[in-house]
Amino acid sequence: MLQQLGEKAWQAFPAVNVRVPEGASVAPAWAPGALPKSYERTRPPLGYPRETDSLCPRCVVETRKAILSGERALSDLVDGHLGEVKATLYEKGNEVWISKTCPDHGSFDDILSIDAGFSRMIEARYPGRDFRTLGDRLVHRHGTSSVRYGRGAVLTVDLTNRCNMMCNPCFMDANQVGYVHELTFEEVRKILDDSVSFKPRRQMVVQYSGGEPTMSPHFLEACAYAKKVGYTLVQAATNGLRFAIEPEFAYQAKEAGLDMVYLQFDGTTNESNRHRHISNLFDVKQIAIDNLAAAGVRITPVVTVVNGVNNEMVGPIFDYCMKNHTKMGGPAFQPVSFTGRDEDVTDEARLRQRYTTSHLAHDLARFYGGRIDPLRDWYPLGSATAIAALTDHLKGPEAEFGQLSCGCHPNCGAATMILHNRKTDVWAPITSFFDLDRFFRDLDVVVDSARGRALTLTQLGLSFLRNFDEKKAPAGMTPMGLVELFNGKMGGSVTGEQRKQESDWRITTILSMWFQDLWNYDFRRTEMCVIPYGTQEGEISFCAYNTGVGWRNIIEQMRAVATTKDWYAQRGRHQIYAGNRPVALPDALKRRLPVVAETAAGDAHGGGCGTGCGCSSS
Amino acid sequence: MLLYITAEDVLGSSPEPRGPGPLPGVPATLGALYDRGMRHHARRAVLQCAELQAAPDWKLDRLVIRIALYGREKLGLEPGTRAAVFGRLGWLWPAAECAVQGFGAAAVGIAHDVPDDALLAALREAAPRFVVATDVASAKRLLELRASGLGPRVPLIAADAGAGEVLPLGQLLELGGTFDTAERAQAFRLLCRRLDPESEALWHVSARGTETLSHARAIERVALRLRARPPERGDLAYLQPPSVTLASRLALAAYVGDGLTETALGSDGAMGEVARLRPHALRVGADWLEAECQGCAPRWPAALGRSGARRRLQQRLGDRLRYVETERRVDEATAATVAAVGIDLVVEQQL
User: Fold this and answer.
1) Closest residue to A254, CB basis, from B17, B61, B191
2) Sign of the C-alpha dihedral, residues B296, B297, B302, B305?
3) Which of A52, A222, B145, B198 has its CA at 20 to 30 Å from residue A355's CA atom?
4) What pTM did the predictor assign?
5) Distances (CA, A) of A5 to A12, A18, A466, A473, A618
6) φ, ψ for residue B20 (rounded to 5)?
7) Handedness of CA A434, A440, A446, A450 (dihedral sign)
8) What are the phi and psi torsion angles at A206 (to 5°)?
9) Record: contact A154-B5, CB cut-off 8 A
10) Nearest CA of chain B to the CA of A396: how many Å?
């Protein structure tokens, strides 16, 4: 009934929009110009087959070595096209593959999707790019790897390449590269200051990463400074060990400004975490989760998924998140990217272990008996551009910052939204009862017409009504209830205030963030990156930094503060948990301070730091 | 979709923060008191001063841990040893003192106005593993004594290290920050909690001589303070001592450890800030209090004069003052003024 009423009322607006010309889009100070209408947004080439710019996995390694050895200048990388080759994305049966041929090293093929229909659908739901960046010459200066579009979503800052684990996979090869790269606090400050120096004015989320960022002596100060600069959400990508071993650190991090951790989380048993080489890692994670939740730090479990290693855990992990919803949000799955210490993977192992967003969608569909439908329920991360546009329109020209808008390439990631009742544990994908495709199209109409606030909200309300199917909705969920939930997610933009959430319902998400590696690299993706790294050499696309020609290796070596050996000699060793040994849990911690080795004497014995901590001598 | 990047928390619900709060009772040692203050606190900042501005508990705690770890790894600080803190009562004083005591060593506090011979005698007797100078003048004085061949050549740490054989605090904290891992920090906290109450906690060296206290004796006096003047949420104590005294050190330990009180470390003469900060407690020189109270005495007898006196005094000292501590008795007029407006006056000998 309500749906029909909404439908009827909505139909009145096209008549109005025909007679009354569109209003002018607002031009907020944070943006490089007026907010684009939906039809003004540009799109990268999509569909299959298509050609794109990629990299030769072998040339890249050679180029990187040449730059690091001084045989080639860094400017060659910025001004040239080293290692670049054309690649073709095409359908093979119901799969999507990438193929490229290097004149020197031959052909390279890899799978991009096990379901071409799924991938076509994801690309079809992509609404278009965000602004082109403006005034960013100081931070985006990396040649073909430069970020060219968007306000970004999360600025990642690696505080240190030191880590207290020895994982495999590790996309930065922590502890093994032979040098220490660690930012000073002044460098952190400069990176954050620079990040708000251009338009569109910066994403207001910063994520400290590493290595293990909590090992940086500046971690807490860096959290506090990010808040001071104006970042609204301060995150850390962490393995959680510090928060498990030192509960006070969780409280202190919260006080300093940490809002959320991206918690490395590979499975819900110790066995499924075994590839991290700590025998009781899941027990440790649970302590970390308890400590962080007690301190009020939000938790997003981040799961690197490797086919044949832990892909069977994706369903149980989401179940775990639902059961522990008072402590954590939905999971962010990251299909494996063969980089760092995994760059030497054999072709056979790579194809066997390759995992994509389409794999994830189908694994979850299987686990939940089809309740999460790959074709109905998954959307590209960039589809939220419509919601960001609405929020920006409602906030008007006076807004200091734009709404966060994750306008990345549709191949970079996808997500599904789940409505979950905290009390009854009933859940359903929102798209099972709400026509999100049409809702996003409605939002484009609403924002493009650029009416005043009252009319905008009226149209928005009608759109909610007409797209909400009460017959299919879970018992107890109403259109107004959904509006309230969306309003919360939009920072209160709809009602003008963010009310304390009292509903039994919550929206949780399942994310897939598929980072590139040398075999599936696509420059059309890197130029739209929304999660760039903030470095001493400017802001670099996430994948260009970790993969691509390997900006990480180049910058970290250029800016290394010491060789690992010298670091240990001068500053002592830190504890590394490895060798399939357990982490001593808090009540079993030693009663004496672990010794800091003053010399490299431990090396002679090959026994690590001598504290019995399990660190290796290498 | 959008949800993982929206400001609210796109990534699902999270529990309400369970904020720590103060715990009843007083623990058995200064180390445990400090540890508890850091873990269970409800205040925006533990210290306020020009150098650190409003320093939250985590900042002080990391300072303490890093000084302790550096002291242990590089300067030979061990349980049962001593380290000295010399100078005025600035922000570095509580950081150094808590680091030393938390580690099971004794903190030898030496006031900046101690004569040279007493200073040298104290350093000889205490044989500290290192000396922390809390201000530039004190560091310079020690260096001059050392240059003249009188001062012992123990490592000297100072925040504003000039030329000479001084270990800059920044350098110490940089390396201390690297030492500051979860395991070592947690081990330090465990040591704090498990100190022997009968072990030596502090020496206090002043012009009047040297006094030593065990943790048990020190905590007795802290407990007396806390029972006599229990802290309340929102309390702010203003310390402007002309010289460090044993009482001011214990007051500072109590404020840091009670989990509620913010402590503003003022400087000589910067009294405009008192009215601005609106402290609940003042610890000031008697001369200063006498000067501030001049002209504030009730001008009418009994109750008639109190409101005027209160207004005038509040303009100078803020409207939340519950008690004032001084190191000696003040003149009768001042005592009468303070008493008339209902503020407790506590003289150091009574502490």
Assistant:
1) B17
2) negative
3) A52
4) 0.88
5) 11, 22, 7, 17, 70
6) -70, 155
7) positive
8) -120, 140
9) yes
10) 18
